[in-house]
Amino acid sequence: MGSVLGALLQALLLLSTQNWSSIEAGDSYACDDPLVAALPQAAFSSSSELSSSHGPGFARLNRRDGAGGWSPLVSNKYQWLQIDLGERMEITSVATQGGYGSSNWVTSYLLMFSDSGRNWKQYRQEDSIWGFSGNANADSVVYARLQPSIKARVLRFIPVEWNPKGRIGMRIEVFGCAYRSEVVDLDGKSSLLYRFDQKSLSPMKDIISLKFKTMQSDGILLHREGPSGDHLTLELRGGKLFFLINSGEARLPSAHSPISLTLGSLLDDQHWHSVLIQRVGQQVNLTVDEHRHRFHAQGEFTYLDLDNEISFGGIPAPGKSVSFPQKNFHGCLENLYYNGVDIIDLAKQQNPQILTTGNVSFSCSQPQSMPVTFLSSRSYLALPGSSREDEVSVTFQFRTWNKAGLLLFSELELVSGGLLLVLSDGKLKLELQQPGKLPSDITAGAGLNDGQWHAISLSAKRNHLSVAVDGHVASAALSLGPEQIYSGGVYYFGGCPDESFGSKCQSPFGGFQGCMRLIAVGGKVADLIAVQQGSLGNFSDLLIDSCGISDRCLPNYCEHGGECSQSWNTFHCNCTGTAYRGATCHNSIYEQSCEAYKHRGNTSGFYYVDADGSGPLGPFLLYCNMTETAWTVIQHNGSDLTRVRNANPENPHAGVFGYVASMEQLQATISRAEHCEQEVTYYCRKSRLSSKQGGVPLSWWVGRTNETHTYWGGSAPDVHKCTCGLEGTCIDSQYHCNCDADRNEWTNDTGFLSYKEHLPVTRIVVTDTNRPHSEAAYKLGPLLCRGDRSFWNSASFNTEASYLHFPTFHGELSADVSFFFKTTSSSGVFLENLGITDFIRIELRSPTAVTFSFDVGNGPFEISVQSPTQFNDNQWHHVRVERNMKEASIQVDQLSPKTQPAPADGHVLLQLNSQLFVGGTATRQRGFLGCIRSLQLNGMALDLEERAMVTPGVQPGCRGHCGSYGKLCRNGGKCREKPSGFFCDCTVSAYTGPFCSNEISAYFGAGSSVIYNFQENYSLSKNSSSHAASFHGDMKLSRETIKFSFRTTRAPSLLLYMSSFYREYLSVIIAKNGSLQIRYKLNRYQEPDVIHFDFKSMADGQLHHIQIDREEGVVFVEIDEDTRRQVYLSSGTEFSAVKSLVLGRILGLIAVVIFILLCITAIAIRIYQQKRLYKRNEAKSLPVMLFMNLEMLLRSCLAGVCIFGGQKLIKPLCLSLYYIQYISSLKNVLLSLAGLY
């Protein structure tokens, strides 16, 4: 029922959104009437004109009157052309031309708009401040569509760039239509209360739309409440809108209560802002200007219990349960509708449903203040003052995002000093500079770079100096002693001209960037229009009568919870604690799968995995079991055995399993995996999984999508059998599950669930344990997933004209592309996607350069990574590119990344519309030859293999992974190719593990030893040596390589002994003094060769490494990789009939043998032998390599050819960490073997 109601609410919300969109848009397709052509001459004005024939009245599109267009007296960035449309209109597009038949045209311009010709606002495209592209000649017309449209009366065109061989010249047209407007002006003490018939309205639905403009940062826009505490409140706080909604018993929020939703910023700029609130039940849409947010309101009810009245501009009715300090709205409201009712029109008609409180007028008053924008650190405003006055008084308001900047400087008379007012780390600092003295300063305020207006008042009279911030006087005002301050003649705001006053006006923080207003010197407010016209003061790089501040953190382009901060020109993202990095916290610091970790060389352990990479899902912790294939192990909270009694269909038992990750994270992980499984063990005694009659389920499990499943481990979803039913091994052949036999004895049905779309198991439900002696128990294993389908997904491109195509890549604000490639070609395009003008392209530009090219409307850019080695070496190389609001970057392998900062106020949306081409281009030129693997766009993998199977010239898959990853196989392990990936073959290594990096080791206790027989040891007579040699093939070794490591503290000790049937041997021992001895006896009739190493004690408990290489009579020995010796043997050159290899103690072979405590951590023996065939007259020889490691020793134990302590055991229990028990049939010998693995 809940889901049905939720779907209904969603549908209602969508419907209301569509209705609002149609109302808001109106007939926008028909709103394209020319608005300038019919205007009178007086509607045109300009900053200046070159001559009477170049006046603004000649600026109509396609007209040739006068000189054929407007041109100013001087061509600079302070010129403008203005059009007054007579009333507010909706403007949808503009068009420009140059001066007729001339070399005068504008190549780029800004567009400003206003309701009154004061307090201008700059039109923004894509939420960034940016000019419009103008003309390339005098007569062609260039159109610019305004999306969104403008509602304004006055437009101003400001040329930014023009033909360098001519002058500024413009002809213009504006297109749009009439705009209907109902306004009401509220003075901060007034409000409107609308009472309505509750029966005619739905308690579940509200749609409220309005526009407002104000200079005040705080005030209540609307409020509605009910008797039980339900309420709706829209309030302006600090220039932001707070929408508060609550259902239930909670009262109106205090200043410290949680806020439901915040949207918008800098809304106190005296410009119109639109608000749309759509509430259906507890589903709420809030739209402020172009920014929309959806959320689910708090509370338990699907509707709000509200009174049949709503107030606008304040809370006028007495007796309301207002628990927070309210401040009424001061400003104008326009086109105010509540559920389709025109509230302002009702108020105009004095409808009794409207209660008016205070002074309300139905026209919007215009602001008296005139802001000025300091556009750069070189901006300044110079205003004259009265010099040599004994009092200095300056007041102004400012707003900025910058932490530092010069606000005011004035040179003082007589004392040859100066007053310096600066912003430093968000605090105000007033400094008095006097020659020969240390500067005196006052610090006031904090956090003044918050974008809000702050009022400053500076006062100096006689010898007393003080400063106030927002009405708070600084705690420590300077007293100057007997000296007195006298005012200077000029006050410099925001900066100083470069050539003035030398170092006195130099601020270490640079100039001020921000807005100022209400500037007054000596109690007289400055006339900024006079400044603009050049009749008062001086200025540089200012925008007068407009505050150009913008909130670069709205919307917040910092992803994954990154914290946004900003300055005047840009924003910054703090990614600390987000698990992401990059300019916008876009890139995950974790891999997407255990497979990816494995191929970085990581071993088994716990890792954070981010399955969707840069997507919205966060990382989570899991266990990676690195075997030949990487296994992902995801635990849950119900791993213990759960027993169930007294459960029936009316009172079922439901075991709920919570995982370490969300369902969305689990789904992403499962989707990437090649295979997933989860073991379910169901123990039962008189507890059935399904009933005998009709097979009605009595127990079931629930999967990821909350669907019920009645198949069990080992079965497919449509088979409904248990493992025993599939294998035909059920205890009762009438049933497909053991438990369905319903026996009064314990049995179980155990198996793995492996249908990925249903995993993981979220609940197990049992209903059949309420009969006598009926009981069940179950145990659910962790979710296990193997491999990564995306990591090895690849395609081979065989011709330059071949490519794969995919749907358009949508990465408007943030886009990342990553992939592996390998090639022998010197160049080729990996990927390309085109728009009308925008594009992205990644290519191998040359054998040593990979290039990322792109255009988002600011002109083409490209960045390249240069490599000291060639990329076309047929090895895998990893490429990752990213483009976001801040920058574009490219990185290849581990080379240093290259970045390209985005233009400060440029276009930001990447708008593509063609297919995405992979391995080639739309022109089928410069295609890529080679392999591309694991291609991902914004964390989503593209299935190259699926598309390659149906594309000529492209083959799915790509071999040759060992060339790049073979180095991961260590210690002699061999890289072996797989259809998807590779594995390390450790057969010829003394190590194991996924990369042959885990040592195979054994611990030898006192008196223990291991013997491996190369050949069976048959009982022979004393005179049967020749017979033995013949029987054993007369195996002779002319060379061998032996490697092993050991650690011991006992001396003397036997490390290794290799013997033959002819009493020849090789022994490695530690002598009594701790020195190492190697003995070779290759001729039984001669004394052995003894090699001594007595440079240090080898029984020091440290790990030592030994390698012995013999080639006939030459032996090379290396110890610990730093001691090397070559010895020539005199006892012979061949091992004849090798018999056995001994590790540890051997009785009767060495005279001095004691108990040893020895840990051999790895051993590898390579024996190269010449084996004579049975026919002695055959000259052909066959080289054979016999390699043994301790894993093979374990196998030999199980095969029954292992000898312990001199006794042959038949299939001994060779178990790690256990001593071999007493075996009476083998002469009651107690053998102990610890740690053999």
Q: Indicate the structural class.
A: mainly beta
The CATH architecture of the largest domain can be named as Sandwich
Radius of gyration: 43 Å
CATH fold category name of the largest domain = Jelly Rolls
Unreliable residue runs: 1-28, 249-258, 1018-1033, 1146-1237
Strand % is 35-45%
Number of helical runs? Answer: 10
CATH class of the largest domain: Mainly Beta
Outline the biggest β-sheet.
9 strands, antiparallel
Shape: globular
Number of domains: 7
- N-C termini distance: 59 Å
Structure write-up:
With 1237 residues, the chain is mostly beta strands. It folds into seven domains: 33-178, Jelly Rolls (Sandwich); 183-249 and 257-317 and 325-357, Jelly Rolls; 371-544, Sandwich (Jelly Rolls), CATH 2.60.120; 563-626, no CATH class; 635-785, Jelly Rolls (Sandwich); 793-958, Sandwich (Jelly Rolls), CATH 2.60.120.200; 1000-1015 and 1034-1172 and 1182-1198, Sandwich (Jelly Rolls), CATH 2.60.120. 7% of the residues lie in helices and 40% in strands. Strands 26, 28, 33, 34, 35, 36, 38, 39 and 41 form a nine-stranded antiparallel beta sheet that branches. Strands 1, 2, 3, 4, 5, 8, 9 and 10 form an eight-stranded antiparallel beta sheet that branches. Strand 47 and strand 48 (630-634) form a beta hairpin. The longest helix is centred in the first third of the chain and has 24 residues, at 2-25. Residues 585-636 form the Fibrinogen C-terminal domain. Keywords: Cell adhesion, Disulfide bond, EGF-like domain, Glycoprotein, Membrane, Repeat, Signal, Transmembrane, Transmembrane helix. It is found in: Membrane. Residues 1-25 form the signal peptide. Its main location: membrane.
